[in-house]
Amino acid sequence: MKSEKADNKRQFILEEAAKCFGKYGYEKTILDDIGKAANMNKATLYYYFKNKEEIFMAVVLAESERFIADLQAKVKDVGNFDQKIVSYFSERLHYYKKVVNLHQLSVAQLRYIQPLFDELYQKVQQTEIAFIAQLLTEAQQKNLLRSQESLPKVAETMLLVANALKHEGVLQAKELYAHEIDYSVIDQQTNYVILLILKGLQQ
Amino acid sequence: MKSEKADNKRQFILEEAAKCFGKYGYEKTILDDIGKAANMNKATLYYYFKNKEEIFMAVVLAESERFIADLQAKVKDVGNFDQKIVSYFSERLHYYKKVVNLHQLSVAQLRYIQPLFDELYQKVQQTEIAFIAQLLTEAQQKNLLRSQESLPKVAETMLLVANALKHEGVLQAKELYAHEIDYSVIDQQTNYVILLILKGLQQ
Amino acid sequence: MKSEKADNKRQFILEEAAKCFGKYGYEKTILDDIGKAANMNKATLYYYFKNKEEIFMAVVLAESERFIADLQAKVKDVGNFDQKIVSYFSERLHYYKKVVNLHQLSVAQLRYIQPLFDELYQKVQQTEIAFIAQLLTEAQQKNLLRSQESLPKVAETMLLVANALKHEGVLQAKELYAHEIDYSVIDQQTNYVILLILKGLQQ
Amino acid sequence: MKSEKADNKRQFILEEAAKCFGKYGYEKTILDDIGKAANMNKATLYYYFKNKEEIFMAVVLAESERFIADLQAKVKDVGNFDQKIVSYFSERLHYYKKVVNLHQLSVAQLRYIQPLFDELYQKVQQTEIAFIAQLLTEAQQKNLLRSQESLPKVAETMLLVANALKHEGVLQAKELYAHEIDYSVIDQQTNYVILLILKGLQQ
DNA sequence: GATGAATGAGGATTCATTCAT
DNA sequence: AATGAATGAATCCTCATTCAT
């Protein structure tokens, strides 16, 4: 492929950028930092990415993919079926929190970035939906679920709800310190709804 | 007092500034934000403070004083004498971590700001030394300590060591994510040394 | 007089301001410098003077008066009548040059300040005219001048011409370095015209 | 060469900047002035220079190099060997005075700028040392000097002394008007020492 | 693909000046 | 008379972004 080399370079930039963002935070990282780290003129970065924000997004996406893979591997070893699902969402929220802290994002930036963020997650979400649907299917095959529902649809709904609660929590946090968003509340709300849904499926 | 009004205004500015720094972080907060929040031209801020950094420092100092007061009240209710001292230092480190996260400071900034930070803490430290010395004195009066040492000196030394370990931890963190500084290691080291010192006093 | 105290204070401010302007130049001297030097709040300066420029002008005026007095004393001892007049104008130009350098004025500032400058000199000029007229009168009494001209008028004209030539020189200096204005050319031109006028009077 | 164009532009900026500094002085010259004079956005200046000060320094350096070249050409035609050396140092001091006046620098600025100034002159000084050493060598070849000293070393020492006396003079001038520094005293001191050294070489 | 060069949009800081008391 | 407080208008400098080559 013509683009294989380009992809490698893109990848390399992202790795260096991730280090920079981690060290200095999103704001303090200037494109010259990333350029120097990747041994190229900062203008070249614009050949591979639209702008600083896109670089950041791509960094987060890469981290996400790694994380989701980890997460799914981990969840497979968790107790029974209910717990698998619940802990999946719980860990997922925990991860979101970590990313926010990791890059020292403030609430203001979060609000601005979130839409792009979510757009980016679309891709990841396909994986997520598939994974949850898979868990549900396995449960169904063990006769744990009586539902006739489309399981992918259910999985998507669960994710939708989880995301909605997360966003809701962030948007409520107007006056609070960014990382003081009370994720534990969001966590409980999410757990509760997910369990309700699962109960519904088991009727 | 001539300066009472000015002091109130200074105080007011600090409260508004604290909100801004909390919301946006140190970097993203621009003086216009603080000015608008405090209903004044940003140039006026320079009448009350030397520069942005001084405003930030004053905010942190105010938070510190509040925190130290809280902390000391809380520690009084903690189990026995040893535990009081140990938990004092543990909580103190936890607070430092919180401040760093609270204002989304990166390692790079930390290094730069730390000296000013510490200078500022001089005042707070007098309170801290007095408090620890008091705890030690009470223990001595209960014949828990046999030492003839000057207790304020001991208190000062404990603080010195705790601070040194904290700084050491930060300076080691060159390549790590700012908030990923491993405070738990620092915490253990600090606990260990403090207990050693206490043991020495009890010989 | 009510204003005697105020006059003393004004005088004191001017002395301190002169030191400041001398040390730092017009631009670099800030009102806080003058205020501190005169032991008063900078706002108070505005009670005594309209603005920074007026302080500067007053400083220059005071220096001028001192200088003109000196000059006139000195000239009295100079050789014959012609030489007295010529050296008066020559020294006068030399003084102007000194003031300009002394306060590190640039050509740009000079252009701006000149009108105010000249307005200020009006007062001084009365003294100057009187002095030159006196020299002329003495010459007339010794029958050195046959003219029927009004001698004050002649004196005034001489000053007018001298000033005009000086201004002309400054305005020509657009592209030159401020203090590189070629005063020697102006000096020669002035001498020449003054001598012509004197010749005319002696016909 | 890759940088030839850039060097030309740098040069062009310096020429325009020199005009501005000459017209308005260091303080009054704003970067917009230089930018406009050089037909570019002021931000572009930062592509070629680190800051305003560096531009100024570069202007002075360029002037210095031109001057030193002139000076050396001129000195070659001066009478005998002793006179060549003495007049070199005398002219050199005269030049320093001119630069200071030329840019309307106040004593305060001089103190601040001097270190950078001297750092910049390091380069020029190599040329100066070589030139003086050459004069000494020629004298030696004519058997005017009996010394076995390293002549470059002697040349360097002479420059060192001349600079030290110059600095001493500036630093003494605390309360004086900047351009009223009494260079004639410095000149005499320098001459005296240089002649002493030359005498020593002729023993 | 890559980069040297250019720039507009800010952001911190300074300072002459004003005004209420 | 005096001043604490306030501010608008600069001014230096930074940085993401663009563009011609």
Write structural notes for this entry.
Four copies of one chain form a homotetramer. With 203 residues, chain A is an all-alpha fold. Chain A folds into two domains: 1-49, Homeodomain-like (Arc Repressor Mutant, subunit A, Orthogonal Bundle); 53-202, Orthogonal Bundle (Tetracycline Repressor, domain 2), CATH 1.10.357.10. The first copy, chain A, contains eight helices and no strands. The first copy, chain A, has helices at 3-28, 31-37, 42-48, 52-76, 81-102, 107-141, 151-172, 183-202. In chain A, helix 1 (3-28) crosses helix 2 and helix 5 runs antiparallel to helix 6 (107-141). The longest helix of chain A has 35 residues, at 107-141. The relative contact order of chain A is 0.10. Chain C binds chain D through residues 19, 22-25, 27-28, 101-102, 104-109, 175-180, and chain D through 19, 22-25, 27-28, 101-102, 104, 106-109, 175-180. Chain B binds a DNA duplex (21 and 21 nucleotides) through residues 2, 5-6, 9, 30-32, 40-44, 46-48, 51-52.
- The averaged pLDDT of chain A comes out at 83
Q: How big a fraction of the residues of chain A is strand?
A: under 5%
Contiguous low-pLDDT stretches of chain A (5 residues minimum) are 174-179
Give the terminus-to-terminus CA distance of chain A.
52 Å
In one word, what is the shape of chain A? elongated
The count of DSSP E runs of length 2 or more, i.e. the number of strands of chain A, is 0
The count of domains of chain A is 2
Count of DSSP H/I helices of chain A: 8
